[in-house]
Amino acid sequence: MPNTQPPPKHEHETLHFPPGFLWGAATSAHQVEGQNTNSDWWEWEKTHLPENKRSGKVVDQYHRFEQDFELVTKIGHNAHRLSIEWSRIEPEEGKFDEAAIEHYIQVLSSLKKKGLTVMLTLHHFTNPLWLAKNGGWENFKTPFYFERFVKTVVPRLESYVDLWVTINEPSVLVWCGYIEAKWPPQKKNKISAIKAMWNLSRAHKKAYRIIHQFVPNAAVGIAHNVSSFEAFHHHSILEDFMEWFMDISTNHLFYYLTGKNTHDFLGLNYYFNQYINFSGEGHFPEIVDIETTKKDVSDLGWEIHPEGIFDVIMDFSDYHKPVYITENGLASTNDDRRVRFLLSYLKEIYHAIQSGVQVKGYFHWSLMDNYEWSDGFSPRFGLIEVDYKTLQRTPRPSAYVYQEIIENNGIPHYLLKLLGHSVDVKDVLKKDQKA
Ligand code: FCB
């Protein structure tokens, strides 16, 4: 339903978010825990990456979670998204490690004791090594293995979890593992990709059913990588057709495969805007290499395009489901850019909410610097900076800007000054801490 309120006055008012909005950050087990030795990624890193690009101890959150969660509350978050590591819980096929489950109970209860709303991801890219050796997601038995894992953990963890994400970015897993083949199992094969996608969708449906068996009123979804698409030439029917095709075959495919009724909410991870161009050569329009456009990009070369998050939220508005932004963030060593990124993307989310979409939470990627898969440690995504030599954690100025947004449950007008360049965060924040 469109909002009937008049459009907000931008001059002086806080851009208010809905009451009870969840404000947090996201991480995944392999990217922060360290020593994840029973997983396919650990094995793959040993043979495919130079030593300085292997995950190793990362930021050692496996042992430092208490300290990290204290920081989470200190910088004002009211929610947190994290994942558990299947390969720790089931290091051998069918053998569940009680100590690992107990560890995650400690982790989750620490978050709950601090009053945080918990979003838990059950599968975030990594697999137990035994599963990978058995054919991984290509194996038609894998959804049953996943089901057994979910059946084991859900009754143990459910009292600490508010929102469940069954699988993180199934389409990225398939793309990077089987099409572009830059991640394990590095198998460039379209048939394998189709099998993997099919099995991931079955695994999600099974997990959805199991979680609801144990927790009838559970909120369950996936964290889905969604892109915005834009034709260069809107008068070109071919480009417009391609835009439509890309949208349904990437953003909507998993929902078609699983059925919309196995999603209580839509978890959207937004990082990419893609331009479509038909140069006249060949038969079809193509996705434009962003470098040729000279647009503003992150340290990973991903375009900074705040309007795109509005576009994807609106694209999904006809599902009529609550939306959580389960990931959105910037790889940059320049924290001023992160401040501008945060404000400009949140402003677009605000406009989507004003346009009638039920967006209920935002999880910034990421809480702290971490292991960025095959890109190693150089991309800096954290609201909290990590010194990888000492493992010391230091909140960046952007963390304090975010804190001030959270305290206001919206974007106070004075913070919008920070959208300008060369504006010092310290001069704008109301609280005298900080940055
Ligand atoms: C997403 C992943 C997450 C992180 C960010 C930068 O695709 O879900 O683990 O690597 O990208």
From TrEMBL:
<dbReference type="InterPro" id="IPR017853">
    <property type="entry name" value="GH"/>
</dbReference>
<dbReference type="InterPro" id="IPR018120">
    <property type="entry name" value="Glyco_hydro_1_AS"/>
</dbReference>
<dbReference type="InterPro" id="IPR001360">
    <property type="entry name" value="Glyco_hydro_1"/>
</dbReference>
<dbReference type="Pfam" id="PF00232">
    <property type="entry name" value="Glyco_hydro_1"/>
</dbReference>
<feature type="active site" description="Nucleophile">
    <location>
        <position position="327"/>
    </location>
</feature>
<keyword id="KW-0326">Glycosidase</keyword>
<dbReference type="GO" id="GO:0008422">
    <property type="term" value="F:beta-glucosidase activity"/>
</dbReference>
<comment type="similarity">
    <text>Belongs to the glycosyl hydrolase 1 family.</text>
</comment>
<dbReference type="GO" id="GO:0005975">
    <property type="term" value="P:carbohydrate metabolic process"/>
</dbReference>
<keyword id="KW-0378">Hydrolase</keyword>
<protein>
    <recommendedName>
        <fullName>Beta-glucosidase</fullName>
    </recommendedName>
</protein>
